[in-house]
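Long-time lurker. I teach an intro course on protein structure, and each term I like to show students one example going from raw sequence to a predicted 3D structure in C-alpha cell notation. This year I'd like something fresh instead of my usual example. Would anyone be willing to generate the C-alpha cells for the chain below so I can use it in lecture? Attribution to the forum is fine with me.
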Amino acid sequence: MKFTITIPASLPSMTVKELLEDQLLIPRKIRYFLRTNKHVLVNGESTHWQNLVKPGDSIQLTFDKEDYLEKELPAGQPSLVEELYQDEHLIIVNKPKGMKSHANEPTEVALLNHVSSYVGQTCYVVHRLDKETSGAILFAKNPFVLPILNRLLENKEIAREYWALAQGKFPSKTIVYKDKIGRDRHDRRKRLVDPKKGLYAETHVTRLKDFGKTTLVKCQLKTGRTHQIRVHLAHHGHPIVGDPLYHPQPQGRLMLHAHRLTLTHPFTLETINVEAPSKSFEAEIKRHRSKARNR
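-- Reply from a regular --
Happy to contribute to a lecture. Here you go:
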C-alpha cells in the first residue's frame, strides 16, 4: 500500500518525525517499521527522521500488509451507492433512509458493505447516521487516513448540517440547545435529556420555513451524541415528523436529512463542501408547504 502526499503551502516546515507523528498520526509501531524498512521517501530519496520537509515536498509512504491488517466484510451491492465525492483517501455518499450505516453483526450487510464493494476495498466508518436518517456520510478508504479524519471530527473541523421538519412553531429565528443527553434506562433504544448524568450536547437550530403546524429547520451539530437532534427538538416540544422514537404520533419517514457536509481535506487542505439531495424528503416538504397554503 503506497501513498504519495505533497505538503501543502499552508503548512510550516517540520521534521519527518513531526510529520509522521503529529500531522499524519501514524502509530508508533508503524512509524518504526517505516523507518527500519526505509519506506519513507522525500522527493524520491531516502531520508533521516530529523531532516526537514517543507511545502511542495513529495512524501511517499509504503506500508506492508502487516502494518494495517485489512478487515474482511461481507460483500455489498455497489449499485446501492450514490457517490457525492471521492478521492484516493475518502468517499462521501448519500445514505438512503432505512439503511444502517454499518453492521452490528459479522454477517449483516449495511451501507459500509455497499460502499466497500463500490470502491473495491475495505472502507471505514468516520461517523454514522441513524438508520432512518438520510444524507451525506463520510467514510475513510484506508486505515491510514482514518485516525486523521477522526481527529478532524473530534476537533469539530467536520461541519455537519441537517434539515429537519419539526412539529410546531419556533419562538425565534435561531436557538441554541445545550441540554445534556444520557441513556433512557426504561428503553435501551432511546436517549433523553439528563441534566445530572448526561453528556454535554450542543445543537444550533435555525428556522428556515414556517408551515404553520410544522417548521423546516437547519440543525448544526457542535457535538455528536446519539440521537442528539432528535432528543433536543423533542425535549423542547418540537419532535421531528415521522420520528418512531420521539414523536407521539409518527407518520411517514423520519424527516431528518444530512443536507451538507464540509471539511478541509487533511492532505491538500482544500475545502470539500458536499450537498446531498433527497427526493423523498423534498417531496414531503412540498406536501407540507402545499397544506400550509391551503389553510
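Some talking points for your students: The helical segments are 16-23, 28-36, 111-119, 146-154, 228-235, 279-293. The longest strand covers residues 158-167.
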